UniProtKB/TrEMBL annotation:
Keywords: Signal
Domain Leucine-binding protein: 2-338
Coiled coil: none
Full protein name: Branched-chain amino acid transport system substrate-binding protein
Skewed-composition ranges (Low complexity): 351-370
Length: 370
């Protein structure tokens, strides 16, 4: 996932330079790997924040890393746009009934768990999956996703048969599967990412727990199907946005990504990383106009990013007063014939019916010096 994000930012940077989108400036990509670790993320953020040439950062993948690095970038007045952080507290704080923006420089192009969880719940209950066991990996993303799913599912009339957890490095899930199987759920809702979700699904079916595993965008990846095997047919995942084929701007991105020859797939979050980078670059066209250096333009860049509005790869790219993406479109996917197939796409903001990790910075430098 992280490598697909990095490549997508790289593509946006190369296109910006080729098209001379910000005259007099050349964008340079500096990719850092946070290793899905808060400590490694802090080290990378500290390094980038100290670089006078950095004007904006795309990333990180994990919400837990986002919590650790957002204050660092905010203190340095550096725009941070995550294509994948879905925990709502990053923008609104822990009290969602009384939201308060946490960091002025933090934005995201993805939809949050307080939307994604209830969206999955409503789909499942409507499909006749009226009882669920929940499992999460104790990480910020997984726990938050399960909490919001549970709230929505029980409100819709669903029953949670048991709520279990696993450790982030577990490989043998026999104990938790035994507990879940005894409660006879119609499906298992999992909060976490595909490296564990795939083997969990495979081991569930091998143990006779022949019900769908349903997860969030953290499992929506071709590698999940490879890990889960043939018995993953019928498993479900939600992902932010509509399928690429349904988005007017996506075809050009997919074509350009393929032509660029990247060895990794762009993945669930690649298009959102691409749009995040484009938002930084579009804002830089304003913030760098009268600046002698990227550092001098940082405060203006934050304001300019907050005002961007354009048709992106993932749909309309714009941010609300908290820094969240205004778009609330999500899709449910089902595994069929060894691939993810879209089942339902909806705009959930009215309630109607994207492992390696990378943080990538776009660093403008004077074009004469490049």
């Amino acid at each position: 996932m992280g490598l697909g994000m990095r490549n997508s930012v790289d593509l946006a940077v190369k296109q910006a330079n080729e098209q001379n989108l910000v005259p007099g400036w050349t964008f340079v990509l500096d990719a850092e790997d946070d290793q899905a670790s808060a400590d490694a993320g802090k080290n990378a953020a500290t390094k980038l924040a100290a670089d006078d040439e950095v004007i904006g950062v795309v990333g990180p993948l994990n919400s837990s890393v986002g919590q650790s690095v957002a204050p660092i970038y905010n203190s340095a007045n550096i725009v941070l746009i995550s294509p994948a952080n879905t925990n709502p507290s990053l923008t609104k704080g822990s009290d969602l009934a009384n939201p308060k923006r946490q960091w002025e420089s933090y934005f995201r192009t993805c939809t949050t768990d307080d939307v994604q969880g209830p969206f999955a719940a409503k789909y499942a209950f409507g499909a006749g999956l009226t009882s669920a066991a929940t499992i999460h990996d104790k990480k910020t993303y997984g726990q938050g996703l399960v909490e919001h799913f549970t709230e929505g599912f029980t409100a819709d009339g669903g029953t949670i048969t048991t709520a279990e957890t696993i450790n982030p490095d577990d490989k043998d899930f026999s104990a938790v599967i035994s507990k879940v199987k005894a409660t006879n759920p119609k499906f298992v809702y999992y909060g976490g990412e595909y490296p564990q979700a795939g083997p969990l699904s495979q081991q569930m079916k091998a143990a006779g727990l022949n019900v769908p595993l349903f997860g969030g965008d953290g499992i929506y990846d071709p590698k999940y199907i490879s890990l889960a095997g043939a018995t993953s047919t019928g498993d479900l995942a939600t992902s932010v946005g509509a399928p690429a084929a349904q988005l007017p701007g996506a075809a050009a991105f997919v074509d350009a990504y393929k032509k660029a020859g990247y060895s990794e797939e762009y993945g669930a979050y690649g298009p959102y990383a691409y749009d995040a980078a484009r938002a930084i670059i579009k804002a830089a066209a304003e913030s760098l106009k009268n600046a002698s250096s990227p550092r001098e333009a940082r405060t203006a860049e934050i304001k300019a990013v907050g005002q961007v509005s354009f048709d992106g790869t993932t749909g309309k790219v714009a941010f609300d007063q908290y820094g969240d993406a205004k778009t609330r479109i999500l899709t449910v996917y089902k595994v069929e014939n060894g691939t993810w197939v879209p089942e339902k796409t909806d705009d959930f903001q009215t309630g109607s019916g994207s492992s390696a990790s990378a943080s990538s910075s776009a660093s403008p430098s004077a074009s004469a010096a490049s």
